[in-house]
Every structure is written in structure tokens, then in C-alpha cells.
């Protein structure tokens, strides 16, 4: 059942319909690398249109489904989109979740340079977009990215404007003014290992101690961690369970964002843009978001929503409905 505290499903065209969930393994542009795409829609949805089709992608550390299809209080974000009449998909870039991991990730990290650079991940986004457009016979769709995923979706939109209807950026990445929590310094191997304890501490960095439990209840974190760490069987089998995350994004942060070099020009984006940011985001500051949106000179319009008492991971916290409702209103408007 939907969260009884939330009323935005009232009047949704498919609020009472069953949800159809379909998992796909699609080819990438690299032999042997396949990409996991999950799609959800209401059983009663009979026609498909660019205005009601969306692809979501994750950030630099964790896969898509545990962010966008985790049913807190009985309802995931993909479920929410489906009940509002959307054909909604989420993608695991190679090296994450259920997508194929590059062979370098099957060996000690120190034996290889960072894998899954941003340019490669954008090609994976392109493969998923092409799959969805061909499957539904539509010319374009909306895109949503979170954290590093905002760079993937933003750069893709800047180069492929004819395929993008609207663009949603959750915690948009821009030139760094603060150290990255993902970069511990020193030489980088192919990937990094993240424990549950480290994941929780990074998540709550910047949250006042008395408010931590109210922002992220223990059972919410454990549900997310169970779903996330289960996607890495090798990591789950270690004495201290870990999840492997490719280091390509960390290397790119050093070469671009931390070096004052934009990876792409936001001014090339030609779709409407919604930027959403959390007040307590310790990874990407409010100043970074402000600098980013001011460069959206080619967008027909843009909007910036600040989520009070939200961290970098506000989409999985008790205040998540602020973000979900803001995104839904943006997607639904003419």
C-alpha cells in the first residue's frame, strides 16, 4: 500500500492498478558487457509517449534499483512514477549493480587503473536510451540523474538534444569547492571497497547529531544496505561485507571538477531542467548548484528546488516526498 502519510497519488490515473515490472539485460557497445535495465509501468498503460517515458540513473558508488526501486513504506519511486502513468526505467551503468563488471574488477584493484570513466558511462546511457526509444517507438524521453548521474544525463542531453524531453538533476555535479568524500587521496586502483559503516557515515555527514535518526531511520538504512550489498556477490561474501565501486568517476573528478575544468557545457542543454538539492548535502554544496544553474542558458526554462533537512541522499530519507512531489509536478506540467 502507498504511504498513508502521502496524498500525491490522489487523482493519479493508475493509482489502483497493478504494476508491471520487467528486467532487461541489454548489450552495451563493448563485447561481453551487458547492462541491467528495469522498467515499471501500470498494467493499464496502453500507449507510450515521450512525455510519459523516463530513464533514471544512479551516482558514483551504488546501483540504481536500491535508490529508485526500494519500497520504503510500500512504494518505490519507480512505482510512484508508474502509478502516475509513466513508463519508468532505471539503469545500472557497467560495473554497478547487476550490469556486467569490467574484467579488471575481478582482480585486485591495484593491478589496474580506474575503470568506468564518465565517457564510457555516457555511452551506456546512450545504449539504454536507444533501447527504450526503439522498444516504445518514440523519438525522445525524459532523463533523471542523481549525483555523478547528473553529469551522465547532463552531458548526454547536451550532445543529444533531439532525444531529450525534460531533464531532472538531483544534486547536480559541478566544479568542486570542497573535497570529495569518494576521494581518499593517493594512487587510485580500478575500484574501491565500501563497507556498511562507511556508507552510513558518509550518508549522514553534515546532519546534526540529534536529527540523524529522524532523517534516516535505522530500518530504512538497513533495507537500503541489504538491497545494495546483495548486488555484489563477491563483496557480500567477504568477512566484512563490502560493495565494489569503480574508480573512474574519482579519476574524472580529479581531472575535471576538482581541477576547474567542466566536463561539458550546461549551456548546450536545450530541454527544460529541474535541479533538486538537499540543505545538508556535504558532497555538493549549494554554491555549486547555484553556479551550475546559472549556466543553463540554452534551456527553455529551469527550476531549482532546495530540500530542507535533506542530505546528498534525500531521495531515500524521511523527507523524500518533498523531492518526489517536486519532480512529479515538473514532469507533469506542459
Your description of this structure?
The structure is a single chain. The mean pLDDT is 95. The chain is of the alpha/beta class. It has helices spanning 65-68, 77-83, 118-136, 148-159, 196-204, 212-215, 218-229, 233-236, 248-255, 286-293, 320-332, and strands spanning 19-27, 34-42, 53-57, 87-92, 141-146, 164-170, 191-195, 242-246, 273-278, 302-307. The chain contains 11 helices and 10 strands. It has one domain: 3-Layer(aba) Sandwich (Rossmann fold), CATH 3.40.50. α10 (286-293) links the parallel β9 (273-278) and β10. Helices cover 30% and strands 19% of the residues.
Give a quick precis of the structure:
This protein has helices spanning 65-68, 77-83, 118-136, 148-159, 196-204, 212-215, 218-229, 233-236, 248-255, 286-293, 320-332, and strands spanning 19-27, 34-42, 53-57, 87-92, 141-146, 164-170, 191-195, 242-246, 273-278, 302-307.
Largest sheet: 8 strands, mixed
Report the strand count. 10
Q: Report the order of strands and helices.
A: EEEHHEHEHEEHHHHEHEHEH
CATH class type:
Alpha Beta
Radius of gyration: 19 Å
- Give the neighbour order of strands across the main sheet: 1-2-4-3-5-6-9-10
Main structural class: alpha/beta
* CATH level 3 topology: Rossmann fold
CATH homologous superfamily label: Alpha/Beta hydrolase fold, catalytic domain
Number of alpha- plus pi-helical segments:
11
Question: What low-confidence regions span 5 or more consecutive residues with pLDDT below 50?
Answer: none
- Overall mean pLDDT score? 95
Q: Ends: how far apart? A: 29 Å
Amino acid at each position: 500500500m502507498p504511504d498513508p502519510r502521502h496524498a500525491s497519488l490522489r487523482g493519479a490515473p493508475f493509482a489502483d492498478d497493478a504494476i508491471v515490472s520487467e528486467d532487461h539485460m541489454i548489450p552495451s557497445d563493448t563485447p561481453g558487457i551487458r547492462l541491467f535495465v528495469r522498467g515499471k509501468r501500470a498494467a493499464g498503460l496502453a500507449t507510450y509517449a515521450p512525455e510519459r517515458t523516463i530513464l533514471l540513473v544512479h551516482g558514483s558508488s551504488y546501483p540504481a534499483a536500491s535508490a529508485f526501486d526500494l519500497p520504503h513504506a510500500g512504494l518505490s519511486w519507480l512505482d510512484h512514477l508508474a502509478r502516475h502513468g509513466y513508463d519508468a526505467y532505471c539503469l545500472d551503468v557497467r560495473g554497478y549493480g547487476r550490469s556486467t563488471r569490467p574484467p579488471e574488477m575481478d582482480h585486485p584493484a591495484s593491478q589496474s587503473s580506474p575503470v568506468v570513466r564518465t565517457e564510457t558511462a555516457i555511452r551506456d546511457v546512450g545504449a539504454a536510451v536507444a533501447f527504450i526509444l526503439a522498444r516504445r517507438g518514440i523519438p525522445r524521453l525524459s532523463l533523471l540523474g542523481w549525483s555523478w548521474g547528473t553529469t551522465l544525463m547532463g552531458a548526454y542531453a547536451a550532445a543529444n538534444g533531439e532525444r531529450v524531453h525534460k531533464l531532472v538533476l538531483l544534486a547536480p555535479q559541478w566544479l568542486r569547492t570542497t573535497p570529495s568524500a569518494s576521494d581518499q587521496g593517493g594512487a587510485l586502483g580500478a575500484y574501491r571497497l565500501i563497507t556498511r559503516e562507511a556508507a552510513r557515515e558518509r550518508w549522514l555527514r553534515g546532519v546534526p547529531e540529534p536529527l540523524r535518526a529522524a532523517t534516516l531511520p535505522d530500518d530504512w538504512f538497513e533495507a537500503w544496505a541489504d538491497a545494495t550489498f546483495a548486488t555484489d556477490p563477491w563483496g557480500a561474501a567477504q568477512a566484512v561485507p563490502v560493495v565494489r565501486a569503480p574508480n573512474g568517476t574519482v579519476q574524472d573528478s580529479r581531472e575535471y571538477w576538482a581541477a576547474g575544468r567542466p566536463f561539458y557545457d550546461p549551456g548546450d542543454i536545450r530541454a527544460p531542467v529541474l535541479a533538486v538539492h538537499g540543505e545538508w548535502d556535504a558532497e555538493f554544496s549549494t554554491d555549486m548548484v547555484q553556479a551550475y544553474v546559472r549556466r543553463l542558458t540554452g534551456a527553455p526554462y529551469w527550476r531549482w528546488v532546495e530540500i530542507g533537512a535533506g542530505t546528498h541522499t534525500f531521495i531515500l530519507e524521511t523527507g523524500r516526498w518533498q523531492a518526489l512531489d517536486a519532480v512529479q509536478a515538473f514532469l507533469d506540467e506542459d
